[in-house]
Design goal:
It holds the Pfam family TM_HPP. By secondary structure, the chain is mainly α. It is about 60% helix and about 0% strand. It starts with 11 loop residues before the first helix and ends with a helix. The relative contact order is 0.15.
Length: about 240
C-alpha cells in the first residue's frame, strides 16, 4: 500500500484545492471538461497579461505582457490536467530550467566581438538553448514541452533577451499565476494536480496463486500405462516366476 498523502492531514476545505481526493474522481461529461478548460485557459492567460501588462513596475523594466510559451502551458495545465507533463513539478522546474539555459547560452554568444557576428549566429544560439534545455529537463525530471520555447525565446526574442537575468523571476511569477488559476478552476469538478513532486507509485502486482489443477499425462488419458509402470510390472512378474 502506498503511504497516505500528506495533504490528507489538511482540512478538506483546503486539501481539495490542492488536488487531494480521498477516493477516485468521477468521470465528467465531455462538455464539462471543455467548459472548464476554456475558463481556465482564458483566466490564466488574462491574469498573466494583466499583471505584466498593466503594472508600472514591469512596464518600466521592459517586461513583455506575457512570455509566449505560456500559451502552450495553458493547453497542458487547463486542458490535459491528468497528463504527467502538466503537473507543477514540470511547470515550475521546466520553465526555470529553460529560462536559465537560454540566458546562459545567449550570454556566451554575446562574448563574440561584434553584434553582427552575434546576429549571424543567432540561429545556433537558439538551437543550442532549446536542445540543451530538453536534456537538462530530462535529467532533472522536469520535462515540460512549452519550456523548450522558454529557452528559445531567451535567445531569439529581443525583448526577452534584453531582460537578461530578470527573465528568471518573470518566469517564476508567470508559473505561479498560471498555477493559481489552475488550482481553482481545475478542482471545482475535476482534480489538479495529480501529484506535486513525485507520481504515486503503482500498486504492487497481486501475488500469484498456486495452481491446484494438474494436467494428466498423455499416456494416462486413454488408460495406457507409461513405460515406467510397465518396467515395474515386469520386475514384479519375474519375482513371482518359479525357478
Amino acid at each position: 500500500m502506498p503511504p497516505p498523502s500528506r495533504l490528507s492531514r489538511l482540512p478538506p476545505q483546503l486539501s481539495r484545492w490542492l488536488g487531494y481526493r480521498s477516493g477516485p474522481v468521477p468521470k465528467r461529461p465531455d462538455y464539462i471538461v471543455y467548459l472548464w478548460s476554456f475558463i481556465g485557459a482564458f483566466g490564466g492567460i488574462a491574469l498573466i497579461q494583466a499583471v505584466f501588462g498593466q503594472a508600472q513596475y514591469f512596464i518600466e523594466r521592459g517586461v513583455p505582457s506575457i512570455v509566449a510559451s505560456y500559451g502552450a502551458t495553458a493547453v497542458l495545465i487547463y486542458g490535459a490536467v491528468d497528463a504527467p507533463l502538466a503537473q507543477p513539478r514540470g511547470l515550475f522546474g521546466g520553465h526555470f530550467v529553460g529560462a536559465l539555459t537560454g540566458i546562459c547560452i545567449t550570454k556566451l554568444f554575446h562574448l563574440l566581438p561584434t553584434e553582427e557576428r552575434f546576429q549571424s549566429l543567432l540561429w545556433l544560439a537558439g538551437s543550442l538553448a532549446c536542445a540543451t534545455s530538453v536534456v537538462l529537463m530530462q535529467v532533472t525530471g522536469t520535462t515540460h514541452p512549452p519550456a523548450g520555447a522558454t529557452a528559445l525565446l531567451a535567445a531569439v526574442n529581443t525583448d526577452i533577451r534584453d531582460m537578461g537575468w530578470y527573465y528568471l523571476p518573470v518566469v517564476l511569477l508567470s508559473s505561479t499565476l498560471a498555477l493559481a488559476v489552475a488550482l481553482i478552476t481545475n478542482n471545482i469538478q475535476r482534480r489538479y494536480p495529480v501529484f506535486w513532486f513525485q507520481p504515486n507509485p503503482p500498486p504492487p502486482p497481486p501475488a500469484a496463486r498456486p495452481s491446484h489443477t494438474s494436467t494428466p499425462d498423455s499416456g494416462s488419458v486413454a488408460g495406457e500405462k507409461r513405460p515406467a509402470d510397465i518396467d515395474v510390472i515386469n520386475a514384479e512378474e519375474k519375482r513371482t516366476l518359479p525357478v
